[in-house]
UniProtKB/TrEMBL annotation:
One Pfam family here: MCLN_ECD
GO cellular component, one term: lysosomal membrane
UniProt keyword annotations, A-Z: Membrane, Transmembrane, Transmembrane helix
CDD domains: ELD_TRPML3
Species name: Albula goreensis
Transmembrane annotation, as ranges: 276-298
Domain Mucolipin extracytosolic: 83-264
Protein name: Mucolipin extracytosolic domain-containing protein
Stored PANTHER family: MUCOLIPIN, MUCOLIPIN-3
Length: 340
């Protein structure tokens, strides 16, 4: 009798129901703990501060980074505006310097109609280029290469052969285009008519265009007032006398291709020097803030990936454990049905 009672007590203590209950309590605690862990991971910084008193360092860093980058973007926009303005003003200055009798409303209608006007305008361009240092109100200078001043290039394009007789309504033409160029150096000033000294002769019946190429340099000093280092500009100017239509109207255009380079040798003294140093420190602070934000973001993503893997293992283990408990309960009931 006593043996039967001991056996029954042992079975009750180790019965599938009690084991399932104890395992269920442990599983419930583990599930609640993991649920709180997941909930905390997806909390916003304010909820985390209320839950555990954790200071929102990441949020503070992100706000600081946004403010710094916004200030930098505004500064970049102002600098870009100064660059665009400088380029546009130089283009307008070059048109007034090198185009004879130019006015601002003549951008699309500037043209000449006689041979003498073409020669006069070419001579005007050459003379203005040679006397640039005495004429320009800006800080323009000639382009140099290897210590040698770059010349003005005067090129004409024309048909190889052309015999046109409008009165007889006949013509003979070889459409192949040839180009002839002449270089004029600024250190060799011309005293008489420039087109005569360079031996420029234009055959207007064959002439397609006359192109004048010249390069000038300038420095955008207005950026110093805005606490930025000035840039050095190279202006590649092309002046075109277009006679492609042979209509008697030679259209003149001036185009400007701009290259921006970092100045090789510069010195800024006084308050501007300290301001530029402060700007460099500000840029360094932005770089550090971005690096810190990157590290925190990588850390958050890594934690999320680890939590995902942990969740997969947790779910798999509890699902297998639940199946084993159910299977053990069914087996015990089949062996000892009268105890149930």
């Amino acid at each position: 009798m006593a043996g039967q009672m001991a056996s029954g007590l042992h079975w009750v203590q180790n019965s599938p129901a009690l084991l399932s209950k104890r395992d269920g309590q442990q599983d419930s605690e583990a599930v609640n703990h993991f649920r709180r862990k997941l909930k905390y991971f997806f909390m916003n910084p304010c909820d985390k501060f209320r839950a555990r008193g954790r200071k929102p360092w990441k949020l503070t860093l992100q706000i600081l980074k946004i403010c710094l980058i916004t200030i930098q973007l505004v500064s970049f926009g102002l600098s870009n505006q100064m660059m665009v303005t400088f380029k546009a003003e130089n283009l307008m200055a070059f048109r007034h310097l090198f185009l004879k009798g130019y006015s601002d409303h003549d951008v699309d209608s500037y043209a000449v109609y006689t041979k003498s006007e073409v020669y006069d305008h070419i001579d005007f361009i050459i003379q203005q280029y040679l006397n640039l240092g005495n004429l320009t109100a800006g800080n323009h200078a000639y382009e140099t290469s290897g210590g040698v001043v770059m010349p003005l290039s005067l090129c004409q394009q024309f048909y190889r052969k052309s015999a046109i007789f409008p009165a007889n309504e006949s013509f003979h033409i070889d459409p192949h285009i040839e180009t002839e160029c002449t270089d004029i150096y600024p250190l060799q000033p011309l005293t008489a008519k420039a087109n005569q000294q360079v031996n420029l002769t234009l055959d207007f019946k064959r002439l397609l265009s006359v192109n004048v190429y010249l390069k000038l340099k300038a420095i955008n000093l207005q950026t110093v007032r805005h606490h930025e280092l000035p840039d050095c500009y190279v202006f590649s100017i092309t002046i075109t006398f277009s006679n492609k239509a042979h209509s008697g109207r030679v259209r003149i255009t001036l185009d400007n291709d701009v290259g921006i380079n970092e100045c090789k040798d510069w010195t800024v003294t006084g308050a501007a020097d300290r301001t530029i140093l402060s700007l460099l420190l500000f840029d360094s602070l932005i770089i550090l803030a971005c690096l810190g934000s990157l590290v925190l973001c990588v850390r958050s993503v890594t934690t999320g990936i680890q939590l995902q893997s942990e969740y997969a293992v947790f779910y798999q283990s509890h699902r297998v454990k639940g199946e084993l408990v159910r299977q053990n309960g069914v087996c015990e009931w089949l062996v000892h049905p009268h105890h149930h």
